[in-house]
Structures are given as C-alpha cells and as structure tokens.
Amino acid sequence: MITEKTYINALSIEQAHSEAEKCTTGFRYIAGGTDVIVNKFQGNDNADCLIDLSEISELKQVVTKENNIEIGALVRLDDLKNYKVITDNFPSLLEAANSVASPVIRKTATIGGNLLCENRCVFYNQSEWWRESAGHCLKCNGNVCIASGGNKNCFAKFVSDTAVVLISMSASIEVFDNNTISIIPIEEIYSGDGITPLKLSKTAIVNSIHIPLNNEYKSVFKKLRQRETLEFSSMSTAVTIDKTGKLKIVLGAVHAKPIIFNGNVADDFNEILNAIISNTRIVENDVYSRSYRKEMITVFLQRSFKELSLLK
C-alpha cells in the first residue's frame, strides 16, 4: 500500500528543506527509494508527501578537501568503486557497500540512504495483514515487543552496513537543517530506540560523509546473513586500526544502535570481547537465533583480529 498524496521534485537542498517545513501532515525525503518505498508498500510508512532529492547535483560528488574525503549522500553504492581515492584508501567501505542487497539495488541505493535506513525486525517488516494476524508490536502502535515480550523497549535492530565501517573509521556527516550546517560524528545520530532510531530532526538533510584520509586505516568487515544477496544483516562487525595503534570495533544488528568499542592494539582480546558482548541487546527478532548470532560475534572478531595480525 502506498498512500502519498504529494510528490515534490526538489532541485536544491534549500528547496527540499523549505518544502519539508510546509508538509504538516508528514513527509519523507527520498533518493534511491529502496527502503522508503518498500516500507510504504508494507504499510509501515504512511507519509502523505515524498520529497525527491535525486536531482540535487551537489549531493552526488566525491571530493578531497584538506585531510578528508567527502562523499555526497546521493552517491550510489555501486558507484563507490569508481573513485580511486576510495578504492585505494577504504577497501572495507567498498566491501560493506557491496554486501548491501543485490547488484541491481546497489545501482539505485545511496550511501546516505543506507546510513539512515529504518531499523528492522521480523515481526515488523511484514505486510499489513501479516502484522494484524500476529499482533501489532511497539513499532507499529501495539503495546508489546513481540520479540522480547516486554512493553517498554523496542529492539528493532540497526542494520546499516556502511555505517558500521564508517563509524570504525571515525567518519562524520555534514547535515543541513534550519539554514545551518553541522558536522556530526556518525555514531552520534543513532538513538538506541528501535521506534525512533535517529536523533536527527525530520527536516534535516545529510549532505555528505567525511572520512579522515591520513590515518592509514586497516579494516576488516564481516557480515552474517543467509544469502549473499538481498538479505539485511543478521550481525556485522568492523574492526579498524590506524597508524597510531588506535583500535575501534563496531557491531551492527545486535542492538537498536551500533555497539562501539574504543581501545588500542595492546588490549587483551578476551577483555575486549566481554566488554562488547555485555553491551549487546540481541533478541529473537531475526531468522537466526539469538544464541547463534551471539556466538558469531566471537567468531567474526577472532577472524578479524587474525587478519589484522592482532591475534595468532
């Protein structure tokens, strides 16, 4: 079911923001549409207005400024491989981008859209008749989390693959809102609330992603899913070290927001593992069981540490 009544093709960031402020009954920005349109078909998004950003050329550029690379939010996932500065410096970002959905979808899906994709749960991302039969959960105006049985917290999982890698490399986003531009670390935009997973205001527009260029990052990305294409993440990990020995580990799909560990290469692996697992909030909301996903955290991190020569 698609219920939008108004479609606006914005030609500038300022126009898109202005139109958003006029949409008092609800709106969605749309670019690739690979997440928004599916949610509308399922009846999980009933915004009356779609504001299309796909014609805003300044959001499609990849440039190097000072010590950062700036990737426009509308750069398509499939196009990342065409930029030598990305292939040379951030191969793990390419790997994460190439793990998203299928080749056809990656030719439409944008990196900004992947950062902002809606949290998912097997009890929520279904058709309307399915949800009515199973019972409405907290994320669709019910009174209980079907996955956990609780009535206070929604544990719909954070599933962005590119965000896991970008956060591990301390990347930031440039955001336009209320005629002001802000630079925000990516990890700070996620709330940990499965119902409202983003801290950004509804009218905010992500202009670009900024990644430091001179830190000589070495990263390993891994993703757990049933099939190599189409599937959203059941669990993902990114382990990154820089030239100073700083270590940053990020996990996705084990909580309503990314799980982050900051340390250095000399830290004890078992202590790192215990610290990370203690902060996860895995519930039975995935095709894989809670116990299996938890077990695979250890497997992925052991493999990643070995690939980075941090563990024998």
Keywords:
single chain, Uridine Diphospho-n-acetylenolpyruvylglucosamine Reductase, domain 3, 312 residues, 10 helices, five-stranded antiparallel sheet, alpha+beta, globular, 26% helix, 12 strands, Uridine Diphospho-n-acetylenolpyruvylglucosamine Reductase, domain 2, four-stranded antiparallel sheet
- Share of helical residues: 25-40%
CATH architecture field of the largest domain: 2-Layer Sandwich
Main sheet: strand order: 4-5-8-6-7
* Integer tally of domains: 2
Tally of helical runs: 10
- By CATH, the topology of the largest domain is Uridine Diphospho-n-acetylenolpyruvylglucosamine Reductase, domain 3
Spans of at least 5 consecutive residues whose pLDDT stays below 50 are: none
CATH structural class of the largest domain:
Alpha Beta
CA-based shape: globular
Topology, element by element:
Layout: E1 6-9, H1 13-22, E2 27-30, H2 36-41, E3 49-52, E4 62-65, E5 68-72, H3 84-89, H4 91-98, H5 103-106, H6 111-115, H7 128-134, H8 161-168, E6 172-177, E7 180-185, E8 205-212, E9 218-224, E10 235-241, E11 246-252, E12 259-264, H9 269-278, H10 290-307
Parallel strand pairs: 1-3, 2-3
Antiparallel strand pairs: 4-5, 5-8, 6-7, 6-8, 9-10, 10-11, 11-12
Helix pairs in contact: 4-8
